[in-house]
């Protein structure tokens, strides 16, 4: 069975994605300039839109790597357009990750695009396809934290700095959680090609529950505390302090009150 090659229209960036990117840019400008009357609302829009952009890029990385690895059906499915509505599991890929950010300030990974693995030859290619998503989050985290570890924050407004810190926290948590070797997550997808057929068959029924299991485990106070201690240590290594990340979250949750009285860096 063959599939028509990817057409140029299959690669055209979706207006939906462009709209989300525009919201990111405009709300980011509002945070930077203090244009919005409610700074928290501007931070909320900026971080949420930027988070959705990163989710789209995460799925795009999976799809693009799969295309170059042999699955030429990717284009016809719309995955190369960056349109989140084209994903196999839009609820898992976009809605739930955004809800997790709103509820708990954690970047849980979403569902993956549907890849026809039978078209792909070679264990390394399968592993690389799975690794492409978390690596995108790592790259996004590097971009968000670059002003911190490059010591390039002179003139950056406090609120924008806080928003970047919180966005970096989301990217780091998403990269780490999605790299766990748990069925249903990309980390397991990296090692799965190297497992025996027997083990893969035994593990397969648990794949749909991997994300739920991670979420449940993180509800355990001791696990949650140890996890975020590790995240804070990583962010501090990148120059992002606790004040930036947690004040960023406080601004993001603007419905809980105005944190500007205690979240300030510059006199």
UniProtKB/TrEMBL annotation:
<feature type="transmembrane region" description="Helical">
    <location>
        <begin position="127"/>
        <end position="150"/>
    </location>
</feature>
<feature type="transmembrane region" description="Helical">
    <location>
        <begin position="162"/>
        <end position="182"/>
    </location>
</feature>
<protein>
    <submittedName>
        <fullName>Site-2 protease family protein</fullName>
    </submittedName>
</protein>
<dbReference type="InterPro" id="IPR044537">
    <property type="entry name" value="Rip2-like"/>
</dbReference>
<keyword id="KW-0479">Metal-binding</keyword>
<keyword id="KW-1003">Cell membrane</keyword>
<feature type="transmembrane region" description="Helical">
    <location>
        <begin position="90"/>
        <end position="115"/>
    </location>
</feature>
<feature type="transmembrane region" description="Helical">
    <location>
        <begin position="12"/>
        <end position="32"/>
    </location>
</feature>
<dbReference type="InterPro" id="IPR052348">
    <property type="entry name" value="Metallopeptidase_M50B"/>
</dbReference>
<keyword id="KW-0812">Transmembrane</keyword>
<comment type="similarity">
    <text>Belongs to the peptidase M50B family.</text>
</comment>
<keyword id="KW-0862">Zinc</keyword>
<keyword id="KW-1133">Transmembrane helix</keyword>
<keyword id="KW-0645">Protease</keyword>
<dbReference type="GO" id="GO:0006508">
    <property type="term" value="P:proteolysis"/>
</dbReference>
<keyword id="KW-0378">Hydrolase</keyword>
<keyword id="KW-0472">Membrane</keyword>
<feature type="transmembrane region" description="Helical">
    <location>
        <begin position="203"/>
        <end position="220"/>
    </location>
</feature>
<keyword id="KW-0482">Metalloprotease</keyword>
<dbReference type="GO" id="GO:0008233">
    <property type="term" value="F:peptidase activity"/>
</dbReference>
<feature type="transmembrane region" description="Helical">
    <location>
        <begin position="39"/>
        <end position="61"/>
    </location>
</feature>
């Amino acid at each position: 069975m063959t599939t028509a090659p990817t057409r140029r229209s299959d690669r055209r960036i979706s207006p939906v994605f462009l709209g989300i990117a525009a919201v990111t840019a405009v709300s980011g400008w509002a945070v930077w300039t203090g244009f919005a009357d409610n700074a928290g609302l501007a931070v909320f829009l900026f971080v949420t839109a930027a988070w959705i952009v990163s989710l789209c890029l995460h799925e795009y990385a999976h799809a693009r790597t799969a295309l170059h690895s042999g699955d030429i059906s990717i284009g016809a499915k719309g995955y190369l357009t960056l349109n989140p509505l084209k994903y196999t599991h839009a609820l898992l890929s976009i809605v739930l990750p955004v809800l997790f950010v709103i509820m708990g300030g954690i970047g849980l990974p979403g569902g993956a695009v549907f890849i026809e693995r039978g078209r792909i030859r070679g264990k390394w290619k399968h592993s690389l396809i799975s690794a492409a998503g978390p690596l995108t989050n790592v790259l996004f985290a590097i971009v968000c934290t670059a002003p911190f570890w490059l010591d390039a924050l002179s003139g950056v407004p406090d609120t924008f700095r806080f928003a970047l810190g919180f966005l970096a926290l989301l990217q780091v948590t998403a990269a780490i959680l999605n790299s766990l070797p748990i069925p249903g997550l990309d980390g397991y997808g990296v090692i799965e090609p190297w497992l025996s057929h027997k083990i893969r068959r035994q593990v397969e029924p648990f794949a749909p529950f991997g994300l739920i299991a991670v979420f449940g485990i993180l509800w355990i106070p001791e696990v949650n505390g140890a996890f975020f201690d590790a995240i804070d240590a990583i962010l501090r290594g990148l120059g992002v302090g606790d004040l930036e990340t947690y004040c960023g979250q406080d601004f993001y949750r603007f419905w809980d009150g105005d944190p500007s009285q205690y979240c300030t860096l510059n006199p």
